[in-house]
Amino acid sequence: MAALRMLCWAYRDYLLNLSPVSTEIFQAIYPDDAYRQILNELKGKHQPPAGIMRLAKLDRLPIGCGMVQSHGPGDAEIKRVYVSPDARGMGAGRLLMDQLIADCRDLGFRRILMDTAKPLIKAQALYDEMGFSRRGPYQAVPELAKDFLVFFEMHL
Questions:
Q1: Per-residue pLDDT, 43
Q2: Are 112 and 104 in contact (CB under 8 A)?
Q3: Buried b or exposed e, range 14-41, using 16+ CB within 10 angstroms
Q4: Rounded distance between C-alpha atoms, residue 8 and residue 65, angstroms
Q5: Alpha carbons 153 and 114: distance in angstroms, whole number
């Protein structure tokens, strides 16, 4: 759990530093205390049958993470997919997503929902390539983030 939390903080820091706009958005959506609380409560929402957490390792070192959580009957949401900068370009993101999709199937979900930030062009290309469809928001989104996020779904 410590490695997973460390990667989640690295992911948040990465998002905060994408641009001045991203700093404002992610500080509003995930202020330090709220994000700390989310990470402290990870286990409950991310354990079968409601979800799952994955940690990617390279030579026993944690290099990436991703999570699945229930988003209502039949729906899963993939969250916090992150690969550390020194491990990018090796296919870890695709392998992590393949596993998370398989986990969604194994847990009996019929649809996957997820979002990413518009500046994350490579992530968007990966999700498109993997068969996700673009869609509108699937939950309430703060006004300042509406034009900054891209939403996806995949029917299983």
A1: 74
A2: yes
A3: bbeebeeebeebbeebbeeeebeeebee
A4: 8
A5: 6
Full 3-state SS string of the chain: CHHHHHHHHHHHHHHHCCCHHHHHHHHHHCCHHHHHHHHHCHHHHCCCCCEEEEEEEECCEEEEEEEEEECCCCEEEEEEEEECHHHCCCCHHHHHHHHHHHHHHHCCCCEEEEEEECCCHHHHHHHHHCCCEEECCCCCCCHHHCCCEEEEEEEC
User: Whole-prediction pTM value?
Assistant: 0.93
- Only one residue has tokens 């759990």, namely 1
* 16-25 mean pLDDT: 91
Task: Inform me whether the pLDDT recorded for 45 exceeds 80.
Answer: no
- Paired tokens of 43: 């286990």
Distances (CA, A) of 30 to 33, 88, 89: 8, 24, 27
Distance CA 155, CA 133 (A): 9
